[in-house]
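Quick check before the chapter quiz. The format below is the same one you will see on the exam, so make sure you can read both the input and the output lines.
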Amino acid sequence: MKTTIDQVYKHLDNDVTIGAWLANKRSSGKIAFLQLRDGTGFMQGVVVKAEVEEEVFELAKKLTQESSIYVTGTIVKDERSPLGYEMQVKGLELIHEAVDYPITPKNHGTEFLMDHRHLWLRSKRQHAIMKIRNEVIRATYEFFNTNGFAKIDPPILTGASAEGTTELFHTKYFEEDAYLSQSGQLYMEAAAMAFGKVFSFGPTFRAEKSKTRRHLIEFWMIEPEMAFMDHEDSLQLQEQYVAYVVKSVLDNCKIELNTLERDVAKLEKITAPFPRITYDDAVAFLKDKGFDDIEWGDDFGAPHETAIAESYEKPVFITHYPTELKAFYMKPDPNRPEVVLCADLIAPEGYGEIIGGSQRIDDLELMEQRYEEHDLTGPAYQWYLELRKYGSVPHSGFGLGLERTVAWISGTEHVRETIPFPRLLNRLYP
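Here is the expected output.
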């Protein structure tokens, strides 16, 4: 019977065949230990010379790293294995012999590994990170589908910036100028006016010349938008969503978290509600911590966010940023118009902002004023203004950066390892 490594628990003490690659091996004369992988997981196959035909043992000894094989044997329990099972091998069939595989068990430099990203993905560590990424995505769909959201797909090619900034990738759209999307948010607001609660999941692009461990040129965003929801409603949804995703990873990625040696005790503390501080309080806190350069009206950088996060075991909301720091569409606090009804969610352990969100301006006159202040003229933004003209309602939304979230949950230092093929300032290959 054919099966996969993640399903061997169903076949205890039975013979099965698995299509696999040889990740590594070691032998001691009369026994060979084959480290097998098949895409679903990793498992050891044990070949005992006295228990198999001679040609099977000879093949086991000659197998090279990343050769593809069919391996047949009996599934037995093995308490020492992270999987809990191993195979007592009875038969081997070579599919393809790999020669001079470039990524050996020795240490390699990061640039070398990135140049061979198409192969590096096969390693146990990279496999674990990608499985956690997959679980975050799966749990995201589950959470929003369960809570009555419709998935709506915004365009990637747009006629203007969602944020009103210049950090855009420009292209030609026949005779017109076009840009790669920085965010689907404006389109999701239109969708929320049609469907109530919506979310999108797709690639976004930032032409920001940054080399930090938190930045990618191309990354993926989850962007929910909700009609008839105010700022407080949105904050509650955000913390419920993040807590749900973390629990899903804890429940369904135990092997992967163990492979990465992640301290799961820290993740087990991630339950709603999350702590909150205002921007005002954050500035005062930073000054007390010796950040004498920070003044009210300044944006926070990575060292500031890390200092704030270190005071909490859970993600922390920083709310009510100065109006001048944030995008044109954010709703001012009615009681204090110099700040907006917004929040950044800062992850623990130095991983920085993972969510940015706000209540949106729903008043036509105020939005027209914002258009004038930000010089948003022409047809590219006219349709967005019309959302305030025809049945405007209070509404809120947020965007979660997938790669930063995966980096935090998996305990991975650099976001380049949390996306299959990263696009960095100096990298467009492979």
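If your answer matched, good. The first strand starts at residue 15 and ends at 27.
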